[in-house]
Design brief:
The chain has 174 residues and is mostly helical. It is 71% helix and 0% strand. The longest helix is centred in the middle third of the chain and has 26 residues, at 64-89.
Length: 174
Amino acid sequence: MTEPRVRPDPAFALLELYETALPEVYGYLLSRCGNRAIAEELTSETFLGAVSACRKEYAPPVSTGWLIGVARHKLADHWRRKEREERGLRLVHESEPDVTDPWDAQVDALRARQVLETLGAHHQAALTLRYVDGLGVPEVAAHLGRSVHATEALLVRARAAFRRAYEEKEGRDV
């Protein structure tokens, strides 16, 4: 009679990677959300989610890159939750006109980050995934749970909102 084989817990691979991956995951999240408390919370969610995911039967090998992918999903989930909360609190719906003109102005990185933090979560998510992470519109749409067409429209509105806020801040900083 053969004894059943005991499969080692795949989470041990994650444990071995934890110390080197933690600063990478936290840095990724902090650079995109700009808030230490949120970055810490999302880092925690990332590692907890990774433990569950790596124990699944067909889980990919555990690596820092894979953890960054998990973190990206956690960040997108955070933005979706934040947008739902903001939408629920909004009493008056402001319709934003579609603006399609290209913006060729020089963008100051610090001011851009400050302006991005003032935008709604849905605009932050779309702009960050598209222009900071460099994802294509279909990938942004997948992360946000929207159709490609709806994501394109969202990006147009987000760019217009960003441009207005950026130029308004520029006028105050001068």
